[in-house]
Design a protein that fits this description.
The protein is mostly helical. The protein is built from ten helices and no strands. The longest helix has 43 residues.
């Protein structure tokens, strides 16, 4: 003999004085965004023994329900200490992604700066070969040029007949 029982989560949550962490997470998912912060804080505080996995779930739910919150705001909503937040899986994943992006950005900047340095050295050699010496006022203007402008200048130097041509080029 089979008896089917139908449960409505909102009724179960309303009738249970302490729904436990599992039902508490479901309640947080179902909560209106305006109530999410309060419920997340209460759930986190009440689940002392299960803090690690509760924190991971609560953070994930808050990130989806309240996507405009920053990491600092989530920390304030949950009334967390910095050390608690840093132990969470969410924080560690975001931190790892940020570190990887930082490494990639650093590599790209290093490559670009290396290319810029080489282009600047080439321009200096070509200008000294063409004009023997350069006025001191030109050095800061050359230092301010981007990689793309230095590469263009390296090509255009071949057409310069005098330092006036260089001055005009730098002025353009």
């Amino acid at each position: 003999m089979r008896t089917d029982t139908l449960f409505y989560l909102d009724e179960v949550l309303a009738q249970s004085p302490d729904p436990g962490p599992g039902l508490g997470l479901i309640g947080l998912i179902l909560a209106e965004p305006a109530d999410s912060a309060r419920q997340a804080r209460e759930l986190y505080r009440s689940a002392a023994a299960e803090r690690a996995w509760i924190l991971n779930w609560v953070e994930t739910i808050l990130v989806y329900k309240l996507p405009t919150l920053s990491r600092e705001e989530i920390k304030m909503v949950l009334d967390l200490q910095e050390v608690d937040l840093k132990r969470s899986r969410f924080y560690q994943e975001i931190f790892a992604e940020g570190r990887e992006e930082g490494h990639e950005e650093g590599r790209d900047q290093g490559v670009t700066e290396g290319r810029r340095s080489e282009a600047r050295q080439l321009v200096d050699r070509l200008l000294r070969r063409r004009f023997q010496s350069l006025p001191a006022a030109i050095e800061p203007r050359l230092s301010a040029l981007s990689l793309e402008r230095l590469e263009l200048l390296a090509e255009d130097i071949l057409g310069f007949g005098s330092l006036d041509d260089l001055e005009r080029w730098l002025g353009s």
